[in-house]
Amino acid sequence: MSFDAAQFKRLERAGYNRIGPRYLAAAGARGELAETLLAAARIEPGQRVLDLASGPGLLAQGAQGIVGSHGLAIASDISEGQLACCPDLLRVAADGEALPFATGSFDRVLCGLGLMFFPDEQAALREIHRVLRPDGLLALSVWGAACEVPLVETALACMRRLLPPPRIARPSIFRFGDPDELKRRLASANYCDIEIEPCRFTLDFADAAAYWQGFLDLAGGAAESLARLPAEKQQALAAAVGAELAPHAQTEGYRLSSTVLMVTARPV
After folding, report:
1. pLDDT by 10s per residue, the chain, length 268
2. Which one of 2, 66, 103, 139 is most buried, by most CB atoms within 10 A?
3. Whole-angstrom distance, CA of residue 123 vs CA of residue 267
């Protein structure tokens, strides 16, 4: 199955436009990840900050609170529907692989759980490098290895079990889960002083239905593909995911602990 980057981007954009405010609500449950990434970015008052693949702007909102009235925080995403969730921020709808900003525009670039969704991550990293000041800092987060992210892998395993392979090939969202591989890719895009730290977080779900809805509310392009399935197939997936959730069962509901890699790097 060949990969069509343009078609993949269209699907992701449609998916995140579809889930809109639901993603904002789901992202709030992962607020500790945003706080950890903001702390790693070491943002200072008066700085200029770009939040790339911003979604509903949680990182940009936090950055704006730090830089203050003499600084600048911009939320940028390919999905206009996501940006509509943060009307109180400066917003720019853009493809992260071709940013519409001048060279050396920003002191900090943030990218929370976004790099995995760029088909050409080297192009995205080069663009981030270009718009960063020479003394700037990139702070990003990515999912860990699949076995360490049951929040997502549980649903994907159920889909693999019940559905044929997707018509549109998708880059694995876990492809940066190996810290050594991630460091190599950053170095090849001319970054140095690369630091990678794992961060564990835990979410509880009352039942399998709550888990499945939670997955749909964060899944973007995957949610768009599922929404195009016949209703009976969608219902079958929601009913079947309990088998994959079984290892995470508690006395009541399910508890899933997952790993995110927090990364900082400077342009060479």
Report:
1. 568 888 888 888 888 888 877 777 777 677 889 999 999 999 999 999 999 999 899 999 999 999 999 999 999 999 998 999 888 999 999 999 999 999 999 999 999 999 999 999 999 999 999 999 999 999 999 999 999 999 999 999 999 999 988 776 778 999 999 999 999 999 999 999 999 999 999 999 999 999 999 898 888 778 788 888 898 998 999 899 999 999 999 999 999 999 999 999 999 9
2. 139
3. 14
Structure tokens at 235: 């219902």
Amino acid at the residue 241: V
Q: Are 128 and 52 in contact (CB under 8 A)?
A: yes
Q: What sign for the dihedral angle of Cα 219, 13, 266, 27? A: negative
For residues 177-202, one letter each, b for 16 or more C-beta atoms within 10 angstroms of the residue's C-beta and e for the rest, the string is bebeebbebbeebebeebebeebebe
Burial class (CB in 10 A: 0-12, 13-18, 19+), 98: exposed
Q: Count CA within 13 A, CB hemisphere, residue 149.
A: 24
Contact 265, 138 (CB under 8 A): yes
Fold of 5-146+170-202+258-267: Rossmann fold (3.40.50)
Give dist(CA 133, CA 15) in Å, integer: 33
The reported pTM is 0.92
Inter-residue contact 191 to 129 (CB < 8 Å) = yes
Residues in the chain: 268
Phi–psi pair at 255, nearest 5 degrees:
-125, 125
Sort strands 191-205 and 254-267 into parallel, antiparallel or unpaired: antiparallel
